[in-house]
Amino acid sequence: MKLKKMGALSLAIAMTVTAMTGCAMPSTGGSDTTAAPTQEKTEASSKDSSSDTTAAESDEKITLRIVDWSDSSLARREEFNKKYMEDHPNITIEYTMLTIDQFKNTIVTMIKSGDGPDLFPIPTGMTLSTALKEEWYQPLNDYVTEEFLNTLDPSVFEEGVTMKGEELYTIPENMPVVNCLFFYNKDVLDNAGITKVPETYSEFAEACKKITETGNGEVFGLIEGGKQLNRLDILARSLAAVGGGKVAPNAKVLTVDGKAPYDSEAMNEAMALMEQLVSDGSIHPDTVNISAPEAREMFAQGQAGFLCQGMWCIPPWAQSYPDLKYGVMAVPVPDSGVKGGVQQVESAPWMGLYKQSKHPKEAAEYLMALFDEDYGYQSGCVSDGNYVSIVPSVNEKYMTNEVMKQYYEVASEIAKVVPAATTRDEKAYDFYAEVKDVQPSLGAILQGVLSQSITDYSSELKKLSEASTVEWQRASEAVGLDYATFDFPNWDPLKDYTEADYAALK
Protein backbone atom coordinates (compact mmCIF):
# COMPACT_ATOMS: atom_id res chain seq x y z
CA MET A 1 0.00 0.00 0.00
CA LYS A 2 1.37 3.41 -0.94
CA LEU A 3 1.26 5.84 1.95
CA LYS A 4 2.09 9.44 2.46
CA LYS A 5 3.70 10.33 5.78
CA MET A 6 2.01 13.09 7.71
CA GLY A 7 3.19 15.40 10.46
CA ALA A 8 1.99 15.13 14.04
CA LEU A 9 -1.49 16.28 14.87
CA SER A 10 -1.25 19.89 15.92
CA LEU A 11 -4.57 21.67 15.76
CA ALA A 12 -6.97 22.75 18.48
CA ILE A 13 -10.92 22.86 18.15
CA ALA A 14 -14.12 24.65 18.84
CA MET A 15 -16.71 21.96 18.38
CA THR A 16 -20.39 21.60 17.66
CA VAL A 17 -21.91 18.18 18.32
CA THR A 18 -25.27 17.47 16.82
CA ALA A 19 -26.64 14.16 18.11
CA MET A 20 -29.81 12.74 16.62
CA THR A 21 -30.07 9.73 18.87
CA GLY A 22 -31.73 6.49 18.06
CA CYS A 23 -29.57 4.05 16.10
CA ALA A 24 -29.10 0.85 17.74
CA MET A 25 -28.49 2.33 21.09
CA PRO A 26 -28.92 5.48 23.26
CA SER A 27 -31.53 6.20 25.83
CA THR A 28 -34.55 7.49 23.95
CA GLY A 29 -37.38 6.80 26.35
CA GLY A 30 -40.40 4.73 25.50
CA SER A 31 -41.82 6.81 22.67
CA ASP A 32 -41.72 5.88 19.00
CA THR A 33 -39.96 9.04 17.98
CA THR A 34 -36.34 9.97 17.60
CA ALA A 35 -35.08 12.42 20.16
CA ALA A 36 -34.70 15.98 18.96
CA PRO A 37 -31.17 17.01 18.03
CA THR A 38 -29.08 18.30 20.87
CA GLN A 39 -26.13 20.60 20.47
CA GLU A 40 -23.12 21.19 22.60
CA LYS A 41 -20.72 24.02 21.87
CA THR A 42 -17.51 24.36 23.75
CA GLU A 43 -14.87 27.04 23.41
CA ALA A 44 -11.31 25.83 23.22
CA SER A 45 -8.25 27.66 24.38
CA SER A 46 -5.48 28.07 21.84
CA LYS A 47 -2.24 26.20 22.09
CA ASP A 48 1.12 26.90 20.53
CA SER A 49 1.18 25.47 17.05
CA SER A 50 3.73 22.94 15.91
CA SER A 51 6.17 23.30 13.08
CA ASP A 52 3.85 21.37 10.74
CA THR A 53 1.73 23.29 8.29
CA THR A 54 -1.83 22.80 9.52
CA ALA A 55 -5.05 24.73 9.88
CA ALA A 56 -4.01 25.53 13.43
CA GLU A 57 -1.14 27.67 12.17
CA SER A 58 -3.32 29.80 9.94
CA ASP A 59 -6.36 31.94 10.53
CA GLU A 60 -8.46 29.63 8.37
CA LYS A 61 -11.60 28.40 10.07
CA ILE A 62 -12.50 24.85 9.10
CA THR A 63 -15.75 22.99 9.70
CA LEU A 64 -15.62 19.20 9.53
CA ARG A 65 -18.98 17.47 9.14
CA ILE A 66 -19.29 13.90 10.40
CA VAL A 67 -22.39 11.70 10.25
CA ASP A 68 -22.82 8.18 11.64
CA TRP A 69 -25.07 6.02 13.84
CA SER A 70 -22.68 5.20 16.71
CA ASP A 71 -25.00 6.26 19.51
CA SER A 72 -23.93 3.56 21.95
CA SER A 73 -20.58 5.32 22.25
CA LEU A 74 -22.04 8.82 22.35
CA ALA A 75 -20.67 9.71 25.79
CA ARG A 76 -17.20 8.52 24.81
CA ARG A 77 -17.39 10.40 21.50
CA GLU A 78 -18.24 13.60 23.35
CA GLU A 79 -15.25 13.06 25.66
CA PHE A 80 -13.05 12.39 22.65
CA ASN A 81 -14.24 15.50 20.85
CA LYS A 82 -13.57 17.66 23.87
CA LYS A 83 -10.07 16.30 24.24
CA TYR A 84 -9.40 16.55 20.53
CA MET A 85 -10.80 20.07 20.71
CA GLU A 86 -8.03 21.15 23.06
CA ASP A 87 -5.51 20.40 20.31
CA HIS A 88 -7.43 21.85 17.35
CA PRO A 89 -8.50 25.49 17.89
CA ASN A 90 -9.48 26.51 14.35
CA ILE A 91 -11.73 23.56 13.57
CA THR A 92 -15.43 23.17 14.26
CA ILE A 93 -16.82 19.63 14.30
CA GLU A 94 -20.46 19.22 13.29
CA TYR A 95 -21.32 15.70 14.39
CA THR A 96 -24.73 14.32 13.41
CA MET A 97 -26.00 10.97 14.64
CA LEU A 98 -28.92 9.20 12.98
CA THR A 99 -30.70 5.89 13.34
CA ILE A 100 -29.57 3.20 10.92
CA ASP A 101 -32.92 3.44 9.14
CA GLN A 102 -32.63 7.22 8.78
CA PHE A 103 -29.03 7.12 7.71
CA LYS A 104 -29.18 5.66 4.20
CA ASN A 105 -31.85 7.99 2.85
CA THR A 106 -30.24 11.00 4.50
CA ILE A 107 -26.78 10.26 3.10
CA VAL A 108 -28.08 9.56 -0.39
CA THR A 109 -29.95 12.87 -0.37
CA MET A 110 -26.88 14.79 0.87
CA ILE A 111 -24.58 13.23 -1.72
CA LYS A 112 -27.00 13.76 -4.60
CA SER A 113 -27.09 17.44 -3.69
CA GLY A 114 -23.28 17.52 -3.68
CA ASP A 115 -23.27 18.35 0.00
CA GLY A 116 -22.05 15.16 1.67
CA PRO A 117 -20.29 15.23 5.04
CA ASP A 118 -16.51 14.97 5.20
CA LEU A 119 -16.64 11.61 7.00
CA PHE A 120 -19.46 9.08 6.93
CA PRO A 121 -19.87 5.27 6.98
CA ILE A 122 -21.18 3.02 4.26
CA PRO A 123 -24.87 2.23 4.96
CA THR A 124 -25.73 -1.23 6.25
CA GLY A 125 -26.30 -3.59 3.34
CA MET A 126 -24.29 -1.54 0.84
CA THR A 127 -20.94 -2.76 -0.47
CA LEU A 128 -17.79 -0.75 -1.03
CA SER A 129 -18.06 -1.49 -4.75
CA THR A 130 -21.47 0.15 -4.89
CA ALA A 131 -20.28 3.19 -2.96
CA LEU A 132 -17.28 3.62 -5.26
CA LYS A 133 -19.44 3.16 -8.33
CA GLU A 134 -21.54 6.06 -7.06
CA GLU A 135 -18.33 8.06 -6.43
CA TRP A 136 -18.95 8.55 -2.72
CA TYR A 137 -15.40 8.18 -1.40
CA GLN A 138 -11.80 9.06 -2.15
CA PRO A 139 -8.76 6.95 -1.15
CA LEU A 140 -7.27 7.50 2.28
CA ASN A 141 -3.74 6.56 1.21
CA ASP A 142 -2.43 10.11 0.86
CA TYR A 143 -3.78 11.19 4.24
CA VAL A 144 -3.15 8.39 6.74
CA THR A 145 0.25 7.40 8.06
CA GLU A 146 1.95 4.04 7.91
CA GLU A 147 2.46 4.30 11.67
CA PHE A 148 -1.31 4.51 12.16
CA LEU A 149 -2.04 1.58 9.86
CA ASN A 150 0.50 -0.58 11.67
CA THR A 151 -1.53 -0.27 14.89
CA LEU A 152 -4.57 -1.92 13.29
CA ASP A 153 -5.43 -5.60 13.13
CA PRO A 154 -4.15 -6.97 9.77
CA SER A 155 -7.58 -8.43 8.99
CA VAL A 156 -8.84 -4.87 8.58
CA PHE A 157 -7.23 -4.60 5.15
CA GLU A 158 -9.65 -6.72 3.15
CA GLU A 159 -10.24 -6.47 -0.56
CA GLY A 160 -13.78 -5.37 -1.39
CA VAL A 161 -14.48 -4.39 2.22
CA THR A 162 -12.03 -1.64 3.05
CA MET A 163 -9.80 -1.76 -0.02
CA LYS A 164 -10.00 -1.76 -3.79
CA GLY A 165 -6.69 -2.88 -5.20
CA GLU A 166 -3.96 -0.81 -3.54
CA GLU A 167 -6.36 1.91 -2.41
CA LEU A 168 -7.72 2.08 1.14
CA TYR A 169 -11.18 3.64 1.30
CA THR A 170 -12.69 2.87 4.70
CA ILE A 171 -11.76 1.96 8.27
CA PRO A 172 -13.96 -0.55 10.18
CA GLU A 173 -15.46 0.71 13.44
CA ASN A 174 -14.71 -2.51 15.31
CA MET A 175 -13.83 -6.19 15.03
CA PRO A 176 -16.76 -8.33 13.85
CA VAL A 177 -18.74 -10.02 16.62
CA VAL A 178 -22.22 -11.53 16.19
CA ASN A 179 -24.97 -9.14 17.29
CA CYS A 180 -27.78 -11.62 17.88
CA LEU A 181 -27.24 -13.00 21.37
CA PHE A 182 -30.05 -12.81 23.90
CA PHE A 183 -29.87 -10.66 27.01
CA TYR A 184 -32.02 -11.74 29.94
CA ASN A 185 -33.19 -9.60 32.85
CA LYS A 186 -32.32 -11.55 36.01
CA ASP A 187 -34.86 -9.78 38.21
CA VAL A 188 -37.65 -10.45 35.72
CA LEU A 189 -36.74 -14.12 35.51
CA ASP A 190 -36.50 -14.39 39.30
CA ASN A 191 -39.93 -12.78 39.75
CA ALA A 192 -41.40 -15.33 37.34
CA GLY A 193 -39.78 -18.22 39.19
CA ILE A 194 -37.47 -19.13 36.30
CA THR A 195 -34.31 -20.70 37.66
CA LYS A 196 -32.78 -22.09 34.45
CA VAL A 197 -31.74 -20.01 31.46
CA PRO A 198 -33.61 -21.47 28.44
CA GLU A 199 -31.59 -23.26 25.79
CA THR A 200 -34.19 -24.71 23.38
CA TYR A 201 -37.15 -23.33 21.47
CA SER A 202 -39.68 -24.92 23.82
CA GLU A 203 -37.81 -23.84 26.95
CA PHE A 204 -37.61 -20.30 25.61
CA ALA A 205 -41.30 -20.22 24.71
CA GLU A 206 -42.25 -21.57 28.13
CA ALA A 207 -40.07 -19.03 29.92
CA CYS A 208 -41.57 -16.16 27.89
CA LYS A 209 -45.09 -17.40 28.63
CA LYS A 210 -44.40 -17.67 32.35
CA ILE A 211 -42.92 -14.16 32.48
CA THR A 212 -45.96 -12.78 30.68
CA GLU A 213 -48.46 -14.60 32.90
CA THR A 214 -46.80 -13.33 36.09
CA GLY A 215 -46.28 -9.87 34.60
CA ASN A 216 -49.94 -8.87 34.86
CA GLY A 217 -49.90 -6.93 31.58
CA GLU A 218 -46.82 -4.93 32.55
CA VAL A 219 -44.01 -7.40 31.86
CA PHE A 220 -43.66 -9.63 28.79
CA GLY A 221 -41.39 -12.41 27.66
CA LEU A 222 -39.66 -10.85 24.66
CA ILE A 223 -39.24 -7.32 23.34
CA GLU A 224 -37.63 -6.33 20.04
CA GLY A 225 -37.05 -3.20 18.00
CA GLY A 226 -39.56 -4.43 15.44
CA LYS A 227 -39.74 -1.15 13.58
CA GLN A 228 -36.18 -1.80 12.37
CA LEU A 229 -36.42 -4.54 9.77
CA ASN A 230 -32.68 -5.15 9.94
CA ARG A 231 -33.02 -6.35 13.54
CA LEU A 232 -35.88 -8.70 12.66
CA ASP A 233 -33.93 -9.99 9.65
CA ILE A 234 -30.96 -10.83 11.89
CA LEU A 235 -33.24 -12.51 14.45
CA ALA A 236 -34.84 -14.74 11.80
CA ARG A 237 -31.51 -15.67 10.20
CA SER A 238 -29.94 -16.52 13.56
CA LEU A 239 -32.79 -18.76 14.70
CA ALA A 240 -32.78 -20.55 11.35
CA ALA A 241 -28.99 -20.92 11.37
CA VAL A 242 -28.85 -22.81 14.67
CA GLY A 243 -31.57 -25.03 13.22
CA GLY A 244 -29.27 -25.98 10.34
CA GLY A 245 -30.59 -23.48 7.78
CA LYS A 246 -27.95 -22.61 5.20
CA VAL A 247 -28.81 -18.94 5.07
CA ALA A 248 -26.29 -16.17 4.43
CA PRO A 249 -25.61 -13.27 6.79
CA ASN A 250 -27.69 -10.13 6.38
CA ALA A 251 -27.29 -8.50 2.93
CA LYS A 252 -25.31 -11.47 1.56
CA VAL A 253 -26.32 -14.25 -0.83
CA LEU A 254 -25.91 -18.04 -0.64
CA THR A 255 -27.95 -20.66 -2.45
CA VAL A 256 -28.83 -24.30 -1.81
CA ASP A 257 -29.16 -26.37 -4.97
CA GLY A 258 -29.42 -23.14 -6.95
CA LYS A 259 -32.28 -21.68 -4.95
CA ALA A 260 -32.64 -18.98 -2.31
CA PRO A 261 -33.07 -20.91 0.98
CA TYR A 262 -35.60 -18.66 2.71
CA ASP A 263 -38.31 -21.33 2.71
CA SER A 264 -36.16 -23.99 4.36
CA GLU A 265 -37.47 -26.19 7.15
CA ALA A 266 -35.22 -24.36 9.61
CA MET A 267 -36.60 -20.95 8.63
CA ASN A 268 -40.18 -22.20 8.89
CA GLU A 269 -39.43 -23.54 12.38
CA ALA A 270 -37.99 -20.17 13.39
CA MET A 271 -41.14 -18.40 12.20
CA ALA A 272 -43.26 -20.99 14.01
CA LEU A 273 -41.48 -20.16 17.26
CA MET A 274 -42.19 -16.46 16.83
CA GLU A 275 -45.81 -17.18 15.91
CA GLN A 276 -46.16 -19.24 19.09
CA LEU A 277 -44.82 -16.35 21.19
CA VAL A 278 -47.39 -14.07 19.58
CA SER A 279 -50.17 -16.59 20.20
CA ASP A 280 -49.13 -16.88 23.86
CA GLY A 281 -49.17 -13.11 24.23
CA SER A 282 -45.49 -13.25 25.13
CA ILE A 283 -44.32 -10.50 22.75
CA HIS A 284 -44.33 -6.98 24.18
CA PRO A 285 -47.28 -5.21 22.46
CA ASP A 286 -45.13 -2.24 21.42
CA THR A 287 -42.55 -4.39 19.65
CA VAL A 288 -43.51 -3.69 16.03
CA ASN A 289 -43.71 0.06 16.64
CA ILE A 290 -40.41 0.72 18.40
CA SER A 291 -36.77 1.00 17.40
CA ALA A 292 -33.92 -1.08 18.75
CA PRO A 293 -32.81 1.65 21.19
CA GLU A 294 -36.33 1.96 22.56
CA ALA A 295 -36.55 -1.80 23.01
CA ARG A 296 -33.24 -1.76 24.83
CA GLU A 297 -34.49 0.97 27.13
CA MET A 298 -37.74 -0.82 27.95
CA PHE A 299 -35.89 -4.06 28.63
CA ALA A 300 -33.71 -2.25 31.15
CA GLN A 301 -36.84 -0.82 32.77
CA GLY A 302 -38.02 -4.37 33.46
CA GLN A 303 -40.77 -4.52 30.83
CA ALA A 304 -39.46 -7.74 29.28
CA GLY A 305 -37.39 -10.77 30.19
CA PHE A 306 -35.47 -11.19 26.93
CA LEU A 307 -33.96 -8.99 24.21
CA CYS A 308 -31.96 -10.01 21.13
CA GLN A 309 -29.31 -7.40 20.35
CA GLY A 310 -25.56 -6.80 20.32
CA MET A 311 -22.70 -5.88 22.59
CA TRP A 312 -23.52 -2.20 22.06
CA CYS A 313 -26.25 -2.38 24.73
CA ILE A 314 -23.71 -2.73 27.54
CA PRO A 315 -22.38 0.86 27.83
CA PRO A 316 -25.76 2.66 27.80
CA TRP A 317 -27.10 0.30 30.44
CA ALA A 318 -24.04 0.85 32.62
CA GLN A 319 -24.55 4.58 32.35
CA SER A 320 -28.35 4.84 32.71
CA TYR A 321 -29.16 1.66 34.65
CA PRO A 322 -26.13 0.84 36.82
CA ASP A 323 -28.22 -1.46 39.05
CA LEU A 324 -29.57 -3.53 36.15
CA LYS A 325 -28.92 -7.24 36.71
CA TYR A 326 -28.71 -9.08 33.43
CA GLY A 327 -26.91 -11.88 31.66
CA VAL A 328 -26.16 -13.15 28.16
CA MET A 329 -27.32 -16.40 26.61
CA ALA A 330 -26.94 -18.15 23.28
CA VAL A 331 -29.59 -18.16 20.58
CA PRO A 332 -32.22 -20.82 21.50
CA VAL A 333 -31.90 -23.99 19.42
CA PRO A 334 -34.54 -26.45 18.16
CA ASP A 335 -35.69 -29.10 20.65
CA SER A 336 -34.02 -31.71 18.44
CA GLY A 337 -30.65 -30.07 19.10
CA VAL A 338 -28.28 -27.58 17.54
CA LYS A 339 -27.77 -28.16 13.83
CA GLY A 340 -25.66 -25.17 12.89
CA GLY A 341 -23.81 -22.11 14.08
CA VAL A 342 -24.88 -18.50 13.94
CA GLN A 343 -23.40 -16.76 10.91
CA GLN A 344 -20.11 -15.15 11.94
CA VAL A 345 -20.25 -11.46 11.14
CA GLU A 346 -18.00 -10.48 8.26
CA SER A 347 -15.67 -7.54 8.49
CA ALA A 348 -17.64 -4.47 7.46
CA PRO A 349 -16.62 -1.11 6.02
CA TRP A 350 -17.34 1.91 8.18
CA MET A 351 -16.00 5.43 7.96
CA GLY A 352 -14.77 6.82 4.67
CA LEU A 353 -13.65 10.17 3.27
CA TYR A 354 -16.14 12.01 1.04
CA LYS A 355 -14.81 12.38 -2.49
CA GLN A 356 -15.73 16.06 -2.60
CA SER A 357 -14.47 16.93 0.89
CA LYS A 358 -12.79 20.32 0.97
CA HIS A 359 -10.69 19.32 3.96
CA PRO A 360 -9.53 15.72 3.38
CA LYS A 361 -6.29 16.07 5.37
CA GLU A 362 -8.02 17.41 8.48
CA ALA A 363 -10.82 14.85 8.18
CA ALA A 364 -8.28 12.01 7.98
CA GLU A 365 -6.46 13.37 11.04
CA TYR A 366 -9.73 13.26 12.98
CA LEU A 367 -10.35 9.69 11.79
CA MET A 368 -6.89 8.54 12.87
CA ALA A 369 -7.33 10.19 16.25
CA LEU A 370 -10.47 8.09 16.85
CA PHE A 371 -8.20 5.04 16.91
CA ASP A 372 -5.29 6.65 18.73
CA GLU A 373 -4.89 5.09 22.17
CA ASP A 374 -3.64 8.39 23.61
CA TYR A 375 -7.00 10.04 22.95
CA GLY A 376 -8.81 7.39 24.99
CA TYR A 377 -11.79 6.82 22.69
CA GLN A 378 -10.91 3.22 21.82
CA SER A 379 -9.85 2.29 25.35
CA GLY A 380 -13.06 3.81 26.73
CA CYS A 381 -15.30 1.96 24.28
CA VAL A 382 -13.58 -1.35 25.01
CA SER A 383 -13.56 -0.94 28.79
CA ASP A 384 -17.24 0.02 28.63
CA GLY A 385 -18.01 -3.20 26.76
CA ASN A 386 -19.16 -1.39 23.64
CA TYR A 387 -17.12 -3.37 21.13
CA VAL A 388 -13.87 -5.17 20.36
CA SER A 389 -11.42 -2.66 18.92
CA ILE A 390 -9.55 -3.03 15.63
CA VAL A 391 -6.47 -1.95 17.63
CA PRO A 392 -5.22 -5.21 19.27
CA SER A 393 -3.13 -3.45 21.92
CA VAL A 394 -6.25 -1.69 23.20
CA ASN A 395 -8.13 -4.97 23.64
CA GLU A 396 -5.23 -6.51 25.53
CA LYS A 397 -5.19 -3.66 28.04
CA TYR A 398 -8.82 -2.62 28.39
CA MET A 399 -11.17 -5.58 27.83
CA THR A 400 -12.15 -5.79 31.50
CA ASN A 401 -15.97 -5.55 31.44
CA GLU A 402 -17.32 -8.90 32.73
CA VAL A 403 -20.55 -8.84 30.71
CA MET A 404 -18.58 -7.98 27.59
CA LYS A 405 -16.29 -10.93 28.25
CA GLN A 406 -19.33 -13.17 28.68
CA TYR A 407 -20.86 -11.89 25.45
CA TYR A 408 -17.61 -12.38 23.56
CA GLU A 409 -17.14 -15.91 24.93
CA VAL A 410 -20.68 -17.02 24.06
CA ALA A 411 -20.45 -15.41 20.63
CA SER A 412 -17.16 -17.17 19.95
CA GLU A 413 -18.70 -20.52 20.93
CA ILE A 414 -21.80 -20.36 18.75
CA ALA A 415 -20.59 -18.43 15.69
CA LYS A 416 -19.36 -20.24 12.60
CA VAL A 417 -17.63 -18.86 9.54
CA VAL A 418 -19.91 -19.29 6.54
CA PRO A 419 -18.80 -19.38 2.90
CA ALA A 420 -18.62 -16.12 0.97
CA ALA A 421 -19.16 -15.83 -2.76
CA THR A 422 -16.69 -12.92 -2.93
CA THR A 423 -13.90 -15.19 -1.71
CA ARG A 424 -14.69 -17.65 -4.45
CA ASP A 425 -14.99 -15.04 -7.21
CA GLU A 426 -14.29 -11.31 -6.84
CA LYS A 427 -16.87 -10.64 -9.53
CA ALA A 428 -19.43 -11.24 -6.78
CA TYR A 429 -18.68 -7.68 -5.63
CA ASP A 430 -20.15 -6.49 -8.92
CA PHE A 431 -23.14 -8.73 -8.26
CA TYR A 432 -23.79 -7.05 -4.90
CA ALA A 433 -23.63 -3.65 -6.59
CA GLU A 434 -26.16 -4.82 -9.17
CA VAL A 435 -28.67 -6.93 -7.21
CA LYS A 436 -31.94 -5.35 -6.06
CA ASP A 437 -33.81 -5.96 -2.82
CA VAL A 438 -36.84 -8.24 -3.04
CA GLN A 439 -39.93 -7.24 -1.07
CA PRO A 440 -41.42 -8.16 1.27
CA SER A 441 -38.05 -8.95 2.80
CA LEU A 442 -37.33 -11.58 5.43
CA GLY A 443 -37.48 -8.91 8.14
CA ALA A 444 -40.80 -7.63 6.79
CA ILE A 445 -42.26 -11.14 6.85
CA LEU A 446 -41.27 -11.59 10.50
CA GLN A 447 -42.69 -8.15 11.25
CA GLY A 448 -45.95 -9.32 9.69
CA VAL A 449 -45.94 -12.42 11.90
CA LEU A 450 -45.44 -10.26 15.01
CA SER A 451 -48.19 -7.84 14.02
CA GLN A 452 -50.43 -10.75 12.94
CA SER A 453 -50.88 -9.19 9.50
CA ILE A 454 -49.25 -12.33 8.04
CA THR A 455 -50.79 -15.63 9.10
CA ASP A 456 -49.42 -17.88 6.33
CA TYR A 457 -45.69 -17.24 6.70
CA SER A 458 -44.83 -20.44 4.79
CA SER A 459 -46.38 -19.08 1.61
CA GLU A 460 -44.64 -15.73 2.07
CA LEU A 461 -41.28 -17.43 2.60
CA LYS A 462 -41.80 -19.50 -0.55
CA LYS A 463 -42.64 -16.37 -2.55
CA LEU A 464 -39.55 -14.63 -1.19
CA SER A 465 -37.36 -17.60 -2.10
CA GLU A 466 -38.73 -17.81 -5.64
CA ALA A 467 -38.51 -14.07 -6.28
CA SER A 468 -35.01 -13.86 -4.79
CA THR A 469 -33.80 -16.75 -6.93
CA VAL A 470 -35.03 -14.98 -10.07
CA GLU A 471 -33.42 -11.68 -9.06
CA TRP A 472 -30.12 -13.30 -8.09
CA GLN A 473 -29.99 -15.11 -11.43
CA ARG A 474 -30.69 -11.85 -13.27
CA ALA A 475 -28.01 -9.91 -11.37
CA SER A 476 -25.47 -12.68 -11.94
CA GLU A 477 -26.11 -12.67 -15.66
CA ALA A 478 -25.94 -8.88 -15.77
CA VAL A 479 -22.39 -8.80 -14.37
CA GLY A 480 -21.15 -11.98 -16.03
CA LEU A 481 -20.93 -14.04 -12.84
CA ASP A 482 -21.48 -17.78 -12.81
CA TYR A 483 -24.62 -18.18 -10.67
CA ALA A 484 -23.20 -21.43 -9.29
CA THR A 485 -20.70 -19.29 -7.36
CA PHE A 486 -23.28 -18.94 -4.58
CA ASP A 487 -23.72 -22.69 -4.07
CA PHE A 488 -21.40 -24.47 -1.62
CA PRO A 489 -22.37 -28.17 -1.51
CA ASN A 490 -19.52 -29.03 0.89
CA TRP A 491 -20.68 -26.55 3.54
CA ASP A 492 -21.36 -28.11 6.95
CA PRO A 493 -23.19 -25.45 9.03
CA LEU A 494 -21.82 -26.97 12.24
CA LYS A 495 -18.25 -26.16 11.20
CA ASP A 496 -16.26 -23.12 10.12
CA TYR A 497 -15.90 -22.90 6.36
CA THR A 498 -12.17 -22.94 5.65
CA GLU A 499 -9.68 -22.23 2.87
CA ALA A 500 -9.42 -25.98 2.41
CA ASP A 501 -13.17 -26.11 1.75
CA TYR A 502 -12.85 -23.42 -0.93
CA ALA A 503 -9.95 -25.30 -2.50
CA ALA A 504 -11.97 -28.53 -2.57
CA LEU A 505 -14.53 -26.89 -4.85
CA LYS A 506 -12.00 -26.01 -7.56
Gyration radius, in Å: 23 Å
* Strand tally: 16
Under the CATH scheme, which architecture of the largest domain would be assigned? 3-Layer(aba) Sandwich
- Cα-to-Cα separation, first versus last residue: 30 Å
- Count of all domains: 2
Shape: globular
CATH fold group of the largest domain: D-Maltodextrin-Binding Protein, domain 2
CATH class of the largest domain: Alpha Beta
CATH superfamily of the largest domain: Periplasmic binding protein-like II
Biggest sheet architecture: 4 strands, mixed
Helix and strand composition category: alpha/beta
Count of separate DSSP helical elements: 19
Could you describe the 3D structure shown?
The protein is an alpha/beta fold. The protein folds into 2 domains: 215 residues, D-Maltodextrin-Binding Protein, domain 2; 266 residues, D-Maltodextrin-Binding Protein, domain 2 (3-Layer(aba) Sandwich), CATH 3.40.190. The protein has 19 helices and 16 strands. A 4-stranded mixed sheet has the order 2-1-4-3, with helices on one face. Strands 5, 6, 9 and 15 form a 4-stranded antiparallel sheet that branches. Strands 11-12-10-13 form a 4-stranded mixed sheet. Helix 1 links the parallel strand 3 and strand 4. The protein starts with 14 loop residues before the first strand and ends with a helix. The N terminus is likely disordered.
